[in-house]
Amino acid sequence: MTTIDIDDEKDLPRPDPGDGEEEPFMVHEPTVAYGVRVISMAEYLEREAASPEKHEYYKGEVFAMAGAKMIHNIISTNLLTSLGRLLKGSKCRPFNSDQRIHIPRNTLFTYPDLSIVCGKPETLDGDEWNLLNPCVLVEVLSPSTRRYDRGAKFRLYRDIPTLSEYILIDSAKVRAEIFSLREYGQWEPRQYEETDTGMCLETLRLTIPFAEIYEGSGLMP
């Protein structure tokens, strides 16, 4: 495990070396979703409920969410399976990428790869569509979303009052980055990449071996 101290805002996660310019706020230009470019939150929710595709929403703009490669789906499924087993009988429950997250403080609606709630789930107006209180969020990194997930999206996620841990799982090599909220309000990052070990989730007080996370991915030695 590698630990790096974050002291201030300028030390927020940045793109991997060699990625080029700093990430834009969003990865893609807004799609002309539903035939319009800017829509209200109420209209987004109405149209998204009937849409076969998933879209992010941020301050009136709608962004199409691309599908994922097989390796991304293998890792996500493995992690969900492990978390479901390890959390069985506890007060915590994992959700897959069909569970939408809403952040009232910055208006974002999005679908993280995995989210975990400990205690009673809270939703927008009790609708059961839009989860408000995850304590852990997980994104599996892909080439098209890597910079967004590590930068701008993390800054948006930090507006969730209940969030205490943010996890990034690499789909190109065996590696996990975990950002944990400390009492002094800063996010401390840790990195795990020893293939014979695993990653430690402090919030849930458990460790998941990389052998489980990357099973069937072709990335384990």
Average pLDDT, rounded to a whole number, is 86
Shape: globular
Radius of gyration: 17 Å
Q: How many individual helices?
A: 5
Q: Kindly, what is the distance between the CA atoms of the first and last residues, rounded to a whole number of angstroms?
A: 18 Å
CATH architectural arrangement of one domain: Alpha-Beta Complex
Order of helices and strands: EHEEHEEEEEEHHEEEEEH
Q: What would you say this structure looks like, in words?
A:
The chain is α+β, with helices and mostly antiparallel strands and 221 residues long. It is built from five helices and 14 strands. It has helices at residues 41-50, 70-86, 146-150, 152-157, 210-213; strands spanning 2-3, 55-58, 61-64, 92-95, 100-103, 108-110, 114-118, 130-131, 136-141, 165-170, 176-181, 187-192, 198-201, 206-209. Strands 1-12-11-10-9-7-4 form a seven-stranded mixed beta sheet. The longest helix has 17 residues, at 70-86. Residues 1-30 have low confidence and may be disordered.
